TrEMBL record:
<feature type="binding site">
    <location>
        <position position="259"/>
    </location>
    <ligand>
        <name>L-glutamine</name>
    </ligand>
</feature>
<comment type="similarity">
    <text>Belongs to the CarA family.</text>
</comment>
<protein>
    <recommendedName>
        <fullName>Carbamoyl phosphate synthase small chain</fullName>
        <ecNumber>6.3.5.5</ecNumber>
    </recommendedName>
</protein>
<feature type="binding site">
    <location>
        <position position="262"/>
    </location>
    <ligand>
        <name>L-glutamine</name>
    </ligand>
</feature>
<keyword id="KW-0436">Ligase</keyword>
<feature type="active site">
    <location>
        <position position="377"/>
    </location>
</feature>
<feature type="region of interest" description="Disordered">
    <location>
        <begin position="309"/>
        <end position="333"/>
    </location>
</feature>
<dbReference type="Pfam" id="PF00117">
    <property type="entry name" value="GATase"/>
</dbReference>
<keyword id="KW-0547">Nucleotide-binding</keyword>
<dbReference type="GO" id="GO:0005524">
    <property type="term" value="F:ATP binding"/>
</dbReference>
<comment type="subunit">
    <text>Composed of two chains; the small (or glutamine) chain promotes the hydrolysis of glutamine to ammonia, which is used by the large (or ammonia) chain to synthesize carbamoyl phosphate. Tetramer of heterodimers (alpha,beta)4.</text>
</comment>
<feature type="domain" description="Carbamoyl-phosphate synthase small subunit N-terminal">
    <location>
        <begin position="7"/>
        <end position="137"/>
    </location>
</feature>
<dbReference type="InterPro" id="IPR017926">
    <property type="entry name" value="GATASE"/>
</dbReference>
<dbReference type="GO" id="GO:0044205">
    <property type="term" value="P:'de novo' UMP biosynthetic process"/>
</dbReference>
<dbReference type="InterPro" id="IPR036480">
    <property type="entry name" value="CarbP_synth_ssu_N_sf"/>
</dbReference>
<feature type="binding site">
    <location>
        <position position="300"/>
    </location>
    <ligand>
        <name>L-glutamine</name>
    </ligand>
</feature>
<feature type="region of interest" description="CPSase">
    <location>
        <begin position="1"/>
        <end position="181"/>
    </location>
</feature>
Length: 412
């Protein structure tokens, strides 16, 4: 269908700003938190990432849908975004893998979108004012009426959403080739590329519901535990934090990604806080403080782990713009190491744009890493593969720990 024949649509932000465009995807009305993603490619992976549940995604790339939708790249069984905002959708998708148009895929999953929006102006607005609630409607013509419903819709801060996206039943992703290790992966909104990255390294991955108890997890006798990305506010993740504390207490190797990094931070005794507009895109520079090396990475987070000195001094917080100057950096980095209930821990990675915490690790008394996590996405779907070494590092932790625990006493 030509775009010009599609009904008009309305977008209203919670601070009253109005944008007009055309209905894109399903017709109807939707609400969520308006966030922008700067990825120039990878819209299919973005749309199907469960971490975007209840978020309305604005694409800063002006042309979206050019390569259609294929059967290989989805990161879960459906499109999760609550709404979709684009400038100029493809009229004719073209790619050898394309099976359907993005417009049709949005319709099939009932996802309401809007096209023809000045996404640059909208992004600048969100950057200045912060992420906020939004409504999109192809049925309402009165912005004030839509605004009332936006203001009645739920906020992201305090939202507990893992239960709405997690698997209901455990399932196994078999190791590719010989099985070397077994990992219990807690699904808080897992992207399908993550178990795949482990499986291709000889790991059998048991993906478990978010409600799995410590006893159920330990019954699998895993060589390592993983906690995934996922939607919502990490402050609500009391159950995964409790489970993880049990895992760390037993010295089982642990790796966390994104929401998993926030759960790890909380398990170590750190706080979390909401960023003003968050990081979403596939070209974010992250520095490994332990080596000085910089990686270009994929991000999708609206919350972050607070620096050990406290959330008030953490950069880009919703309440406090923080201090991202070199002086602010060195003051914070001087507190990168902390003593926790499980041993010495530290901030290992930071985002070079704003000094937000991007990685954590926990060591034993001999200084050997036992557990670690990153706020970004080494599974790289979509995104650069700079951080793939982290999966090898996790496998290395399991090799170390099984090596030391399975050798007979006295053997060296
Ligand atoms: N991708 C994620 O895991 C996001 C974690 C969390 N919901 C956040 O927005 O920060």
């Amino acid at each position: 269908m030509s775009r010009n024949t599609q009904p008009s649509a309305l977008l209203v932000l919670e601070d009253g700003r109005v944008f007009r465009g055309r209905s894109y995807g399903a017709e109807g009305e939707t609400f969520g938190e308006a966030v922008f993603s700067t990825g120039m490619t990878g819209y299919q992976e973005t749309l199907t990432d469960p971490s975007y549940h209840r978020q309305v995604v604005v694409q800063t790339a002006p042309h979206i849908g050019n390569t259609g939708m294929n059967d290989e790249d989805p990161e879960s069984r459906r499109i999760w975004v609550a709404g979709y905002v684009v400038r100029d959708p493809a009229r004719l998708p073209s790619n050898w893998r394309s099976r359907r148009s993005l417009d049709d895929a949005l319709r099939a999953d009932g996802v309401v979108g809007i096209s023809g929006v000045d996404t640059r102006a909208l992004t600048r607005h969100l950057r200045e004012r912060g992420a906020m609630r939004v409504g999109i409607s192809s049925t309402e013509t009165d912005p004030d009426a839509l605004l009332e419903r936006v203001l009645a819709s739920p906020v992201m801060k305090g939202a507990e959403l893992a239960a709405e996206v997690t698997t209901t039943e455990p399932y196994v992703v078999p190791a590719v080739g010989t099985r070397k290790y077994t990992v219990a992966a807690v699904d808080l909104g897992i992207k399908s590329m993550t178990p795949h990255r482990l499986a291709e390294r000889g790991v059998e991955v048991h993906v478990l519901p978010a409600t799995t108890t410590l006893d159920q997890l330990l019954a699998l006798e895993p060589d390592g535990v993983f906690m995934s990305n996922g939607p919502g506010d990490p402050e609500t993740a009391d159950h995964p934090v409790k489970v993880l504390r049990g895992v760390l207490d037993r010295g089982i190797p642990f790796f966390g990604i994104c929401f998993g990094n926030q759960v790890f931070g909380r398990a170590l005794g750190l706080g979390t806080y909401k960023l003003r507009y968050g990081h979403r895109g596939i070209n974010q520079p992250v520095q490994d403080l332990t080596t000085g090396k910089v990686e270009v990475t994929a991000h999708n987070h609206g919350f972050a782990v607070a620096w050990p000195t406290g959330a008030a001094d953490s950069p880009d917080s919703a309440d406090d713009a923080g201090d991202a100057s070199p002086a602010g950096r060195s003051r914070r980095h001087a507190h990168a190491e902390i003593e926790t209930d499980f041993g010495p821990a530290r901030v290992t990675h930071v985002c070079l744009n704003d000094d937000v915490v991007e990685g954590l690790s926990l060591s034993d008394r001999d200084g050997r890493t036992r557990a670690f996590s990153v706020q970004y996405h080494p599974e790289a779907a979509a995104g650069p593969h700079d951080a793939a070494y982290l999966f090898d590092r996790f496998v290395g932790l399991m090799a170390d720990s099984t090596g030391t625990t399975t050798l007979p006493e006295g053997a060296a």
